[in-house]
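hey
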């Protein structure tokens, strides 16, 4: 690949991942991987200045200010990012450059907290505004009401300068993050991937009570602007803030030489595991404000500071056990259980081992010392085995040829390395089926968490998904045993179960877990067949006449409804009052019939779900990935890799305005 092509590719990838990080609070790659791409792009742009562009990610700061959480406000002082460095040599070079340009400079080395930037504006000692970083240059979001419920944010200062603006990092302690995820699990909601994502999403909540409940914290790391008060140095400003009761970065150090700065960075690294919160680096900044003013800033970064980024965390642990779990389809998944280690803000003690081939590749056995890391700083994985630390009694682990739950003999899945239990009465498959049935994409029964399902199956209350609707008959026993909680929680869940009976029939079809029939296919099928009675009577040929239902899906549907136990299941659900009819009106306008759309990026005025609903109403199909079969890519800002693929394949790319024009009679 030539330099121009690589530069273009990197710019698109960085824009995509920047949007995932700053705007969606849902990164797909680690900070380290992102930083490496950015460093490569910077190097290529320096080597090939003819390809310079003001639109390059190297010339931009942060993300795009979002309107959903609050009103946009203009920054008084730009909230710039920092130049990243990754080696001792780069740190020493920065110190040397500062020493050449300044007279006897001092350097402050402090933690780089992994959170979300926020600025606070005080007028005569009263908090008037809190704003997020937004685009870093012009606009941020007004999050004042949420900031006021953060325990570390002072609403009123003891001393009252005419104007004071400070910038800090909103974050979550590990303990508070664990507590939030525990509540998410109990409520049947998706857990947050890491403290940073949780803090970012919480600060943008429209309801301040949620922000207060989740117990965000904040450190101030810079004084942005003052009137009526002045400071000579950064540390002098810190002392003033401390007297106001404003938390500042812990254990900062003032240094004079490059070696002192590097020693301080290493000391922070050694203490990372002991901190109650996440850090992803160390910041080195000039102490005197007059020196900072002299140095100034580029369009993206201040010249008076750098951020040293630590490499991805890897920790050693001892493998104690390999658990075998049975999924909804009978697939047996081995999971490594090792001594807990803390990585990227969460305590990790488990990692999937996929199948026997993966175990063989690692050459893994009980008692091995393993190196653990988090892929994308989210998913725990085992990187390697420390074979020189292997115990004398070691044996390579082999998955047995019988189900670990029901004891029935297993079979090897064709064309894969997976082992499967094919016993339909296996209790483990029942649990997974139940979890799928009550999940968001299926019957969407709020608050019906995994813990409840496991206990209800174990105690015999659930042996079929139809039993969910019989739980109301066991209300008193459930309350007495405390399986779901006390009276209030039990009644709340029973009410949610009753409410789910009103769902559109496609949700029930999704919940049945028929192989090759997901939510999109189920919706298409029910729009065509309208009722379960018609669906159950449909022949193989009739099913294949439905858009996007191929031979395999049709055979799976016929097989499911051809079994006596499933016919009985549908009968029980119908008797319980579960809706069996399509509630969506059959659209007379099917202008998008046979067309496939993909939606990517941030649309200017519509939510993606709203656009998808409009397309589907007119007979179109919305999928998640671009292929040769895609007719249109609806692209918003930061469209990323899907836009590139669409262009490569010659797929027509449309905007929100184009879509509205195409559907103008329906909007």
């Amino acid at each position: 690949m030539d330099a121009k092509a690589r530069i273009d590719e990197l710019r698109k990838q960085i824009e995509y991942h920047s949007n995932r990080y700053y705007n969606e609070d849902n990164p797909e790659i680690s900070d380290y991987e992102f930083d490496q791409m950015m460093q490569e792009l910077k190097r290529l742009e320096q080597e090939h200045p003819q390809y310079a562009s003001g639109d390059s990610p190297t010339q931009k700061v942060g993300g795009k200010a979002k309107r959903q959480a609050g009103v946009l406000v203009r920054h008084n002082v730009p909230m710039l990012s920092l130049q990243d460095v990754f080696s001792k040599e780069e740190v020493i070079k920065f110190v040397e450059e500062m020493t050449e340009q300044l007279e006897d400079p001092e350097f402050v080395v402090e933690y780089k907290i992994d959170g979300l930037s926020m600025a606070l504006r005080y007028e005569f000692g009263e908090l008037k505004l809190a704003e997020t970083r937004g685009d870093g240059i012009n606009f941020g979001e007004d999050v004042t009401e949420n900031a006021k419920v953060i325990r570390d944010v002072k609403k009123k200062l003891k001393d009252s300068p005419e104007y004071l603006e400070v910038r800090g990092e909103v974050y979550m302690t590990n303990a508070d993050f664990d507590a939030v995820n525990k509540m998410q699990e109990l409520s049947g909601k998706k857990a947050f991937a890491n403290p940073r994502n949780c803090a970012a999403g919480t600060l943008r909540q429209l309801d301040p009570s949620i922000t207060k409940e989740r117990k965000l914290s904040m450190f101030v790391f810079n004084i942005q602007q003052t009137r009526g008060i002045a400071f000579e140095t950064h540390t002098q400003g810190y002392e003033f803030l401390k007297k106001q009761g404003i938390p500042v970065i812990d254990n900062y150090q003032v240094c004079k030489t490059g070696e002192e700065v590097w020693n301080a960075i290493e000391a922070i690294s050694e203490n990372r595991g002991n901190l109650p919160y996440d850090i992803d680096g160390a910041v080195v900044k000039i102490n005197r404000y007059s020196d900072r003013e002299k140095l100034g800033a580029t369009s993206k970064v201040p010249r008076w500071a750098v951020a040293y980024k630590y490499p991805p965390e890897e920790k050693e642990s001892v493998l104690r056990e390999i658990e075998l779990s049975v999924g909804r389809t009978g697939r047996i998944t081995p999971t490594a259980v090792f001594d807990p280690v803390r990585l990227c803000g969460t305590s990790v003690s488990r990692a999937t081992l996929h199948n026997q081939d993966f175990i063989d590749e690692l050459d893994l056995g009980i008692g091995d010392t393993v190196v653990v890391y988090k892929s994308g700083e989210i998913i725990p994985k085992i990187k390697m085995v420390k074979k020189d630390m292997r115990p004398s009694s070691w044996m390579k682990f082999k998955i047995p040829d019988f189900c670990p739950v029901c004891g029935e003999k297993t079979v090897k899945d064709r064309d894969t390395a997976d082992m499967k239990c094919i016993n339909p009465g296996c209790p483990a498959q029942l649990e997974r089926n139940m979890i799928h049935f009550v999940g968001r994409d299926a019957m969407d029964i709020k608050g019906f968490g995994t813990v409840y399902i496991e206990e209800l199956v174990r105690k015999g209350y659930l042996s079929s998904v139809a039993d969910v609707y019989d739980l109301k008959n066991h209300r008193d026993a459930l309350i007495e045993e405390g399986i779901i909680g006390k009276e209030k929680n039990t009644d709340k869940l029973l009410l949610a179960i009753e409410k789910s009976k009103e769902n559109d029939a496609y949700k029930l079809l999704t919940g049945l877990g028929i192989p090759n029939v997901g939510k999109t296919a189920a919706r298409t099928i029910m729009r065509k067949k309208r009722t379960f009675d018609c669906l159950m009577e449909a022949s193989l040929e009739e099913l294949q006449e439905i858009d996007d239902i191929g031979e395999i899906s049709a055979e799976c549907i016929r097989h499911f409804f051809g079994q006596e136990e499933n016919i009985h299941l549908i009968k029980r659900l119908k008797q319980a009052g579960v809706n069996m009819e399509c509630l969506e009106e059959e659209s007379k306008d099917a202008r998008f019939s046979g067309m496939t759309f993909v939606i990517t990026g941030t649309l200017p005025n519509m939510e993606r779900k709203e656009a998808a609903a409009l397309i589907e109403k007119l007979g179109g199909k919305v999928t998640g990935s671009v292929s040769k079969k895609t007719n249109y890519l609806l692209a918003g800002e930061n469209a990323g890799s899907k836009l590139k693929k669409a262009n490569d394949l010659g797929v027509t790319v449309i905007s929100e305005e184009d879509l509205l024009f195409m559907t103008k009679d329906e909007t």
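Residues 64-69 have pLDDT under 50 and may be disordered. The two ends are 45 Å apart (CA to CA).
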